[in-house]
Amino acid sequence: MDILQTIILSIIEGITEFLPVSSTGHLILASKIMGVAQTEFVKSFEIFIQLGAILAVAFLYWKEIFLNLKVFKKILIAFLPTAFIGFILYKLFKQYLLGNEQIVIWSLLIGGIILILFDLRHKEKENSTEDISKISYKNCFLIGLFQSISIIPGVSRAGATIIGGLSLGLKRETIVKFSFLLAIPTMLAASLYDLYKSSGAFSFSELDLLIVGFLASFVVALFSVKFFIGFIRKNTFVSFGVYRILVALLFLFFI
Predict the structure, then answer these.
(1) Rounded CA separation 164/155 (Å)
(2) What pLDDT, on a 0 to 100 scale, did the predictor assign at position 152?
(3) Tally of domains within the chain
(4) What sections of the chain are H helices per DSSP?
(5) Please, are residues 182 and 75 in contact by the beta-carbon 8 Å criterion?
(6) For residues 232 and 235, what is the distance between their CA atoms, to the nearest angstrom?
(7) Distance CA 59, CA 51 (A)
């Protein structure tokens, strides 16, 4: 993988991490188009650059995370299911799921259909929860269970948590922001654990690519977060479902 491919993948990550379209799925499919082999380093790279995007959220929302103990505790509760499942299934995810194009394509397709059907049927109630600090600990844990489904590439961490939160009675903007914040411990843990398991196999030149990818995804994600918050205030998630289906069909029949 060269520096241009690194930058392209990092830009894709920064744009898609917070949208319900699966950043991991996009990285895998983009790697296929560019002829980037799914080596152990590339798989680790695809995990690590997500940390750059996630830290953009920490930069934008640090007051809500670190100065509000109630919100901080609820984020940690929601993180627990993914932490447990991710630790138990790490080898399965790294060796068999991450890099599997067919799993990504079908996850994008099925997930797109689910997202459209759910959004068309979902009606937000007037008493829907709009303050993150008022989400019950039980619902935080349940949202975490929804997020854990995204260990399957193509499912979308954001998409799973958004559907989970809306199902539990949260307002759109509330669950989107909660999804942003939940991503911080989730991807921080995933990135650090993968680096711990795989760092010995990296060369110095590959470490340089990790740094470039981290910085590029961080910068792009700053703009992506602001765009998504503004978008969902006026629009539904149906367009993202349609996009997922179109991408899946494109790769299924033409690429």
Answers:
(1) 13
(2) 87
(3) 1
(4) 3-16, 23-34, 40-60, 62-66, 69-88, 90-92, 101-121, 137-148, 157-167, 172-198, 204-232, 238-253
(5) yes
(6) 5
(7) 12
How would you label 90-110 residue by residue, b for 16+ Cβ within 10 Å and e otherwise?
Answer: eeebbeebbbbbebbbebbbe
Q: Is 129 helix (H, G, I), strand (E, B) or coil?
A: strand
Measure Cα distances from 106 to 23, 59, 174, 252 in Å: 15, 34, 29, 9
CB atoms within 10 A of CB 50: 29
Crossing angle (nearest 10°) for helices 157-167 and 101-121:
30
Round the CA-based radius of gyration of the chain to a whole number and report it: 17
d(CA 121, CA 241): 14
> Which domain range does residue 165 map to?
3-253
Q: Can you tell me the distance from the alpha carbon of 142 to that of 235, in angstroms, rounded to the nearest whole number? A: 25
Q: Per the structure block, which two tokens stand in for 224?
A: 């992506």
Express each pLDDT in 136-195 by its tens digit. Answer: 999 999 999 999 998 888 899 999 999 999 999 999 889 998 998 998 888 888 878 777
Contact 113, 238 (CB under 8 A): no
